[in-house]
């Protein structure tokens, strides 16, 4: 998803505030949850852009839905709302996480496997592949995909490492059929 200049500015400002308050890790974790809410709930977005709701009612809605997250996130959402940028909330979150990851030498990754991987397996994957992408570690999300038959597929940014049985069979098929 492309990041607008405004989304990057909001993210930088929020990052600086989180860093000043020493709550960057907590803010990243909370923003991941906020992102889920905004991507999965179109009703929330529709309420926040509804012209018949007052700003105060929209603030109350934000306060109640996001009462468990860092207060700086709630305040940032209100600023984004007031400045008519609520449609860029997910972009702001993505930009914030990217900034935080860059500062801490971490990269987000998704590992697809046929079954849940153990913490030890995830740690070994992180250690091995983080070096290949020039990072200290990977923040790995493990997704289950039984269609892979076996092996793993790892996505780090725009890089894909595919060591699944399905990809090997497809490679053999291409080699044999020309």
UniProtKB/TrEMBL annotation:
Protein localization: Cell membrane; Membrane
Record key words, sorted: ATP synthesis, Cell membrane, CF(1), Hydrogen ion transport, Ion transport, Membrane, Transport
Chief localization: membrane
Matching Pfam families: OSCP
Family that this chain belongs to: Belongs to the ATPase delta chain family.
UniProt function note: This protein is part of the stalk that links CF(0) to CF(1). It either transmits conformational changes from CF(0) to CF(1) or is implicated in proton conduction. F(1)F(0) ATP synthase produces ATP from ADP in the presence of a proton or sodium gradient. F-type ATPases consist of two structural domains, F(1) containing the extramembraneous catalytic core and F(0) containing the membrane proton channel, linked together by a central stalk and a peripheral stalk. During catalysis, ATP synthesis in the catalytic domain of F(1) is coupled via a rotary mechanism of the central stalk subunits to proton translocation.
Protein name (Swiss-Prot/TrEMBL): ATP synthase subunit delta
Gene: atpH
């Amino acid at each position: 998803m492309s990041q607008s200049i405004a989304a990057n500015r909001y993210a930088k400002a929020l990052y600086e505030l989180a860093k000043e308050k020493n709550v960057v890790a907590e803010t990243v974790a909370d923003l991941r949850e906020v992102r889920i809410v905004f991507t999965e709930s179109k009703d929330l977005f529709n309420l926040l852009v509804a012209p018949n709701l007052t700003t105060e009612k929209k603030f109350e809605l934000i306060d109640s839905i996001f009462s468990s997250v860092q207060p700086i996130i709630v305040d940032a959402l209100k600023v984004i709302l007031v400045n008519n940028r609520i449609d860029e909330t997910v972009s702001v979150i993505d930009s914030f996480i990217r900034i935080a990851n860059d500062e801490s030498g971490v990269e987000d990754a998704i590992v697809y496997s046929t079954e849940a991987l153990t913490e030890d397996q995830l740690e070994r994957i992180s250690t091995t592949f983080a070096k290949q992408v020039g990072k200290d570690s990977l923040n790995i999300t493990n997704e289950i995909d039984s269609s892979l038959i076996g092996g793993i597929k790892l996505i780090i940014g725009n890089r894909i490492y595919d060591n699944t049985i399905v990809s090997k069979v497809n490679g053999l098929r291409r080699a044999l059929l020309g």
